[in-house]
Amino acid sequence: MQRTYLFLFSFLMLQCMQLQAQDSSLLRLLDDSLNADSRQPQEVTGTFKATQLINLPTTESPAKKTLQFLIMHRFGKLNEGAYALFGLDNATIRFGLDYGLTDRLSIGIGRSTLDKALDGSLKYKLLQQTEHSIPISVSLYELVNHYTLRYSDKPYLNARYRTSYVSQLLIARKFSRSLSLELAPSWIHMNLVPTPDDKNDVFVLSAGGRWKFTKRMSLDAEYNYLLPNQAVSSNITRSLSFGVSIETGGHVFQLVVTNAAGMAAPYYLAKNTGSWGNGDIYFGFNISRSFNWNRK
Fold this sequence. Notes:
The protein is mainly beta. It has one domain: monomeric porin ompg (Porin, Beta Barrel). The protein is 15% helix and 43% strand. The chain contains two helices and twelve strands; from the N terminus they run H-E-E-E-E-E-E-E-E-E-E-E-H-E. It has a twelve-stranded antiparallel β-barrel. The radius of gyration is 28 Å and the shape is globular. Keywords: Signal.
């Protein structure tokens, strides 16, 4: 009988030791897993809530399998006076569709009433800002613009002369929940310029940002500095724009004032002639709506 008790006691002790060893192993695995997760850099999201700051594209893109519909609308100039209801009788508009092929790569098309221009674009996120690791987000934006406005007195204006190309490097940082800033050096190649003194290749340095003053509202601003001595035959001015953005679920609604009528890149970067000092101020709005097919 004593042998039986001794055997049972030894068996129970052995089982307890095995269970204790298993618990220790599981705790070590859990600790290792938690430590590994804590070492993973956390992505900084929501640098901007829309793919457009005002006219300037942001580093943001539609997520994978997400389609964004964008309406950009500008009324006429305020200095057109009461007869044109201070510009409200006239308007230019651009429609755009952007689709996320992946979370980092998107493609887009657009159509503007100004010059009846068509555009196609591609945006790829090269870097994503993370906490304590990568300080900035960087996206490459490529755009081709082709205008189709008819000129009966210029039969030589075939597709080659009507096309221009834009490359932009979008560099942004979200400094806090309220403040995000962006820099964007741009290169524009225009196949046709007004005179031989004008450059076919021009460079622009853009800067902008947003300040979020409530949970769903922000102030936005951007300035596009066309470097001197590039477009000399025309009275080209640099565009300056301000906006107020309102986030409403899947919509971002934005009220803007700007001295640029054009909303596609070559127009507001290198072809703008509006002047704030002369009252060439355009009131307008941007509306973006996203449709997500990635939900299960």
